[in-house]
Amino acid sequence: MSKLRPRSGRTPLQPKNSDNHHHSSSSPNPKPIPKPNPVLIDKENRREMSDATAAAGSLGDELEAIKKKMERMRMDRERTEKMLEERGRVMDAKMKELEERGEVQKMMEIQVDRLFRLKELKSRCMRVSPIRTLREKEQLKIGNESPSPSKIAESDIDP
Fold first, then answer.
1. What are phi and psi for residue 28, nearest 5 degrees?
2. Quick check: pTM over 0.85?
3. Were 136 and a residue from 53, 86, 105, 132 both cysteine, which residue would form a disulfide, CB within 3.0 to 4.6 Å?
4. What does the pLDDT read at residue 122?
5. Mean pLDDT, rounded, for 92-108
6. Which H or E run includes 38?
7. Triad 97, 102, 105: Cα angle to 5°
């Protein structure tokens, strides 16, 4: 297996520029931790108190900013609710219109179906009924007895 980068000769827990990587594992005596000076402690407490008053002022500013943000968010929520209500009303109106169109379409389909059945019934009745009524027979006789239009035209020319 090939290594991607060359080994630097140090272990991961040692600082990069440390000379300790050649020494033995015995560590030198640690430096003693200095005890805090009481005068410095008092100065730090005063600084913390002045920081606290400054923080109180900044907290007031933060509180004011949060109040403004809450008010802005409340107004945005109200505007969004109004917009959603308006969209809901528009959607309801469109849904009602679609339902009405559906009802009209259903009624039209029923009427078309009735007309188709009526036409079909009429054509079947015409085929089935070879018996002619008396009136139809008389009209056929009159039609046969009357001269044709070509004969009428010829008779008008002869005299």
1. -70, 165
2. no
3. 132
4. 82
5. 97
6. helix 38-128
7. 125
Exposure string (b/e) for 33-44, b if CB count within 10 Å is 16 or more?
Answer: eeeeeeeeeeee
17: helix, coil or strand? Answer: coil
Residue carrying the six token digits 């802005």: 72
CA distance 28 to 31: 9
Residue with more model confidence, 152 or 90: 90
Q: Cα-Cα-Cα-Cα dihedral of 128, 133, 138, 141, to 10°?
A: 20
One-letter amino acid at 26 equals S
Distance CA 145, CA 139 (A): 10
- Amino acid 27 reads S
- The model's confidence at residue 125, banded by pLDDT at 50, 70 and 90, is confident
